[in-house]
Every structure is written in structure tokens, then in C-alpha cells.
Amino acid sequence: MPSFLHFCQWLYNTHLSTSIRESVWVFPIIESTHVLSITVLVGTITVFDLRLLGVLMKTEPVSGVARQVLPWTWAGFAVMFITGLLLSISEAATNYYNPAFRIKLVLLALVALNPLIFHTSIFRKVEEWDLAKTTPFRARMAAVFSLVLWAGIIISGRMIAYLEKP
Amino acid sequence: MRDSTWAFAIVEIGHLLALAVFGGAVLLVDLRFLGFGLRGQSASKVAKELLPLAVSSIGVMLLTGFLMVANGPVRYYFNPAFRFKMILFVIALFFHFVLQIAAARNRQARESLPFRWKAAATISLILWLSIGIAGRAIGYV
User: What is the ipTM of this complex?
Assistant: First the structure.
């Protein structure tokens, strides 16, 4: 994909990319914000996934947990996405070659599919199993996929810095 | 662990994974005290339901954190960000868990909580946030 590589190199040389990369404090601040927003996102989605798996809040309706917890998940996602975009712009040309970054992008694409499928299929009929201690198989599968994929994203995200070639 | 290329990375990733779970659990408890988030359940119930998650994830963080420090204790000893983090951590650990366990036991903690609970939840959030920032700063200072 040489044209995409060219795009990454162009991005790497933009003013925005260079100024983030070369400043002393901007990169760490964006990076810390990125990690904190991941905490909000993954921590809250974990609580929801554990409800789907029947581990936590078994007496609370699934739809109730979704309504109360998921807005915080989305807020975390928005901040994570923006800061993550800035971080990848600042290191676009080096990230292009980074295997951890490539794996992370694939996992992110997969994790985006998960709520898309979940909310358009089994969650549509949530009133049928809202109070069930054992939720339908597909809902439990969605929860397991979510937990595994987000863990994979955190692992590959941290590995980016370890596999970065100077 | 110093001699291995990947041992430190694996322990650090374990620390981060536990952080994600712990941060979310603590956030939801403190938000409930403030009157946001899981409003459908009493504050007492939220504190009780999320206690096992918070305790188990902080357990993993303590273990992995200890292993990372054991990797180079002298280096950490002189790191100002590390000292700051440890002081805040001891305070936050007692403050937050006394608060959460007290709430879990208090059946009276209903819909709207008195001001002192909200103040305590705010302090807890600020403490954990500072610990996260100080933790990241260890690598920079």
C-alpha cells in the first residue's frame, strides 16, 4: 500500500504532527488523557459486559444498566478517539511500520462491529430478557468479544511504544 | 525481570488492564454518590455490587505494581513522581475504600445523598486522577 505510506509520510510532516512530536509536554498530556479516557471507556463497558454475563447487578434490568452506564462509555470513547487520532498523526510515518499499531487498528475495526451487531440484533428484543439472570447466548457472546477485544486493544496499544523503531 | 526483554512489558500491561477495570468501577461508584450514572439503584447497592470488581482489580494493580518496583527499587526511590504517587495512593486507598464499604453497609443511602457524600466522592475522584497522572509521570521525570 505505497500510496497509504505516502499519505502517512505527508501526515508526519504536517505542522500539527511535528508540533505534537517535538514539544516537551503536549505529547505526554495527550497520551495521559488517552489512557484516562480508555479507563473510563473500558471500565464502564466492563461493568455492562459483566451484567450481560450475569456476574454483576443481576437484579438490575439490562436496559437500565445500558441506559445509565453506556453514555459514560461513549464519552470516554469520544475523548479516546480524538486523542488517539492526534497521537497517531504525530507518529504516522513510524506507526505505519509498527506491527502493534497495525494489529490495534484491526482490533479496533472488529470492536466497532460488535456493538453494531449487538444493538441491531439481540438488544432490540431486550425487553424479553431484561431481567434474566442468564442472558441469551448471543448477548453473552457479545460481552465476551467486547472484553477480549478491548483487552487486546490495550495490550497492542501499549506494545506500540515497545516496538517503535527509533 | 531486569534481564528479560518482555517480562517488564507483560507486567506493565497487566497493570494497565487492571487500571482500566479499576478506574471504571471507582468512577461509577463515585458518580453514583454525586447523583450521576447508575441512578436506578441506591448508592448503597452500587457500592456493594462494584466492591468485588474494585477490590480484585486493585489487588492485581498492587501485585503488578510491586513487581515493577522490585525491578529497580533504588531508581524508583529517588523518583519524585513515584514518591508523590505512593503518598497519594495510601491516602486514596483508605479514603476510597472506607467510603465505599461504609456506603455498601448503609442501607439508608438512598436516592439523593447528603452533601458530605458528594464532597467525599469528589475528593476520591481527584485523588485517583492525580495518582494516574503521577504514575504516568514516573516514566518522564
Answer: 0.83
